[in-house]
Automatic annotation (TrEMBL):
It catalyses: L-glutamate + ATP = L-glutamyl 5-phosphate + ADP. Keywords: Amino-acid biosynthesis, ATP-binding, Cytoplasm, Kinase, Nucleotide-binding, Proline biosynthesis, Transferase. The keyword Cytoplasm applies. PROSITE patterns: GLUTAMATE_5_KINASE, PUA. This is Glutamate 5-kinase. Catalyzes the transfer of a phosphate group to glutamate to form L-glutamate 5-phosphate. SMART domains: PUA. Its EC number is 2.7.2.11. The gene is proB. It is an enzyme of class 2 (transferase). The lineage of its organism: Bacteria, Bacillati, Actinomycetota, Actinomycetes, Geodermatophilales. Residues 279-358 form the PUA domain. GO terms for molecular function: ATP binding; glutamate 5-kinase activity; RNA binding. The keyword tRNA processing does not apply. Substrate binds at S55, D142, N154.
């Protein structure tokens, strides 16, 4: 796969990191923002669709509040995001307006994507914005997200948005121009041109968080996000923000994560990457083989126990006798109903309890 796959992509998700737009000393760098907007507006003028995932709300809000470092407590970070999100969106709206492009704000928390109904609604909103000719700008809703429901970084959010929006390509932009086989800041290192599987990076030590103090991600989070998207059929290019135009034109910059496998359905993708398990269903060896090797539904006969207080239709992990997670799926029963069904054949159950514990259409294998 060559970079032409990015150049030909009709619908592109572009994610830009805080370190590319803001600094602790100056806050939002409007010149950098306008440079990126010029690139994305040119893409729109060429007839392509763009979804922008933008970090930078907290970094933008620090300087106006007189805060000299990234907040250590959640409340202060949320206050900075509240101020910064308004300034950031106003800057984007003004910059894109100069190109005749209308933008729309989409604020998400992890909870919005871990709940299936919310995921579907977010997908419909983005699709409608694009149909109306609006460029969606997505960010984590830092003003309300708690530690328990945060994405943790916008790289993972961008990977989820790439699938949610049925994108043809994902471009992850930061202050690092590619994935390297070492740290280019401290010694000799070679750019990795293309990654086709995790095996290509087995010997690579990935960098940590951004060095200017306003970012939360690092190269490790970008690689994780790239694998999420590429394994779901979306090619990913990782490069620096100044190389955005070259990357979107298919020039040989950055690191390309080649897409592989079929693009999963929205439900399968949501189950694998976006859902939050509410409990576990424990399987015997026979049930593991039936689910993993034969693609069968999970029947009560193969269940040995349940952990947690999940309800019917909640996401649960299916765990084998060795403790390894085999699959993830939607439970057909409440946890309190399962003890009476354990190990019993379907024929021995009451008619109301003969449905599978997890139907194969509501199940996705993990760890494969």
């Amino acid at each position: 796969m060559t970079r032409e796959v990015v150049a030909r992509a009709h619908r592109v998700v572009v994610k830009v990191g805080s370190s590319s737009l803001t600094s602790l000393e100056e806050g939002l760098d409007v010149a950098r923002l306008h440079a990126l907007v010029d690139v994305l507006a040119a893409l729109r003028a060429a007839g392509r669709e763009v979804v922008l995932v933008s970090s930078g709300a907290i970094g933008t809000g620090l300087a106006p509040l007189g805060i000299g470092g990234r907040p250590r407590d959640l409340a202060t970070a949320q206050a900075a995001a509240s101020v910064g999100q308004l300034l950031l969106m106003r800057a984007y709206a003004d910059a894109f307006a100069g190109h005749g492009v209308t933008v729309g704000q989409v604020l998400l928390t992890a909870d919005d994507l871990t709940r299936r109904g919310h995921y579907r609604n977010a997908r419909q909103t983005v699709e409608r914005l694009l149909a109306l000719g609006v460029l969606p700008i997505v960010n984590e809703n830092d003003t309300v997200a708690t530690e328990e429901i945060r994405f943790g970084d916008n790289d993972r959010l961008a990977a989820l948005v790439a699938h949610l929006s049925v994108a043809d390509a994902l471009v992850l932009l930061s202050d690092i121009d590619a994935v390297y086989d070492g740290d280019p800041r401290v010694g000799a290192a070679s750019r990795i041109d293309t990654v086709r599987s995790a095996a290509d990076l087995e010997a690579v030590v990935l960098g940590s968080a951004a060095r200017n103090g306003v970012g939360t991600g690092g190269m490790a989070t970008k690689v994780e996000a790239a694998f999420i998207a590429s394994q779901a059929g979306v090619p990913v290019l990782v490069t620096s923000t100044p190389q955005a135009a070259a990357a979107l034109a298919g020039e040989p910059v950055g690191t390309l994560f080649a897409a592989h496998g079929r693009r999963p359905s929205a439900r399968q993708f949501w189950l694998r990457y976006a859902s939050r398990p509410r409990g576990q269903v424990l399987l015997d060896a026979g049930a593991v083989a039936a689910v993993r090797e034969r693609g069968a539904s999970l029947l009560a006969a193969g269940v040995t126990g349940a952990v947690g207080e999940f309800l019917a239709d909640d996401p649960v992990e299916l765990v084998g006798p060795d403790g390894a997670v085999v699959a993830r799926g939607l439970a057909s029963y409440d946890a309190r109903e399962l003890p009476a069904l354990l190990g019993r054949s379907t024929a021995d159950l009451e008619p109301d309890h003969r449905r599978p514990v997890v139907h194969r259409d509501e199940l996705v294998l993990v760890g494969t």
